[in-house]
Amino acid sequence: MEIEQTIRNLPKVELHIHTVGSIRPGTLLAVMDDGEIDVTYESVKDIERLFRYRDFTHFISIYSQVVDYITRESHFERIIFEMLEDCVKCNVHYVEASFSAFDHIERGMEFSAMINALNRGIRKAKKQFGVESNIRIDLVRNAGPDAGMSVLDLIEEKPDNIVSIDIGGSEEKVPPRPFAQVYERAKKMGLHLVAHAGEAAGPQSIWDAVNHLNVERIGHGVTAREDPELMNFLKKKQVAIEMCPVSNVRTGVVSDIATHPIRDFFDFGLLVTVNSDDPSFFHTDLNNEFIQLHRHLGFSIDELFQISLNSIEVSFLPEERKAQLRDSFKDEYERLKPL
Ligand SMILES: [Zn+2]
Predict the structure, then answer these.
(1) Are strands 240-243 and 272-274 parallel, antiparallel or unpaired?
(2) CATH 3.30.930.10 fits 10-318, yes or no
(3) Per-residue pLDDT of the chain (339 residues; tens, 9 = 90+)
């Protein structure tokens, strides 16, 4: 138990966390009420029941249902502030918050007003808790590359605190390749490049993301284990993998934590990070992710701390800030380390 307390106290970084997927059940009820949405959900328990999935497709359908309930740009200030407050409870110092802007634009919301609301929440959390945060925009692959281009137009006008793009959604239906020009343009705009790949689709999806989108980081990457050549490639190029173990169990991508490939990836020398993906939707947080890895896959405190350092390394912070964060993490770790 003492070990698990030390794990909770480890300094951490969240690189792959969806803002809407972090909405607290009570906040979702308040947001529905504010939007005068008439639904059958009345209590936090009802929402928790809603957040149980048969499989990946079911998860995506519930996600889009929740998106329907968010009707005002200003809601995002509260959602992201609370998300960051919850991250701080896991001793997270830096967050790259994913935001699927197109989902909300499609429902009539205005991009710059949403970005302003997110940044208000980010500033408030920085002031109250000291946690630092940037935004990564998920272009929503199901909307297609043209929609992706239109979101890049909006980012060009309003780049406040936005560090990267990503494509999440139904990977098996919408492969990475058609997004090649979108990614090329984003790179020219100075944005970093990430894609969800190898979560709900096989290793080819990862190959396509690295070869055609030139991504720096892969979200999930679980199915890389099926392809030894790809494993060697990811190791050689040190492409970072944003792994989200509990999410993969909840959506049925892997059957349980004990069979999650993260242990093999880490031992093989892949640049692995650990993240909570949609903590509220998946009943998890970063402390739980770390503890599960310790309990079921034998990750030691030193190994888990190495994962925190990996996350700093592959974050989209400037090099100087990375070095400061690394030093402060090491100091904190020295104070925590059991004798
Ligand atoms: Zn994700």
Answers:
(1) parallel
(2) no
(3) 699 999 999 999 999 999 999 999 999 999 988 888 877 888 889 888 888 888 878 888 888 899 999 999 999 999 999 999 999 999 999 999 999 999 999 999 999 999 999 999 999 999 999 999 999 999 999 999 999 999 999 999 999 999 999 999 888 899 999 999 999 999 999 999 999 999 989 999 999 999 999 999 999 999 999 999 999 999 999 999 999 999 999 988 999 999 999 999 999 999 999 999 999 999 999 999 999 999 999 999 999 999 999 999 999 999 999 999 999 999 999 999 765
Q: Which residues of 85-97 are buried (b: 16+ CB within 10 A; e: fewer)?
A: bbbbebbbbbbbb
Distance 243 CA to ligand 1 centre (A): 9
pTM for this model (two decimals): 0.96
Q: Please pick, among 199, 216, 242, 289, the residue that the annotation labels catalytic.
A: 199
Instruction: Give the distance (Å) from ligand 1 centre to CA of residue 216.
Output: 16
- Rounded to the nearest angstrom, the distance between the alpha carbon of 81 and the centre of ligand 1 is 19
**Domain limits, the chain:** 10-318
Amino acid (one-letter) located at 264: D
Q: Among this protein's residues, is 14 annotated catalytic? A: no
> What tokens does 231 get?
């494993």
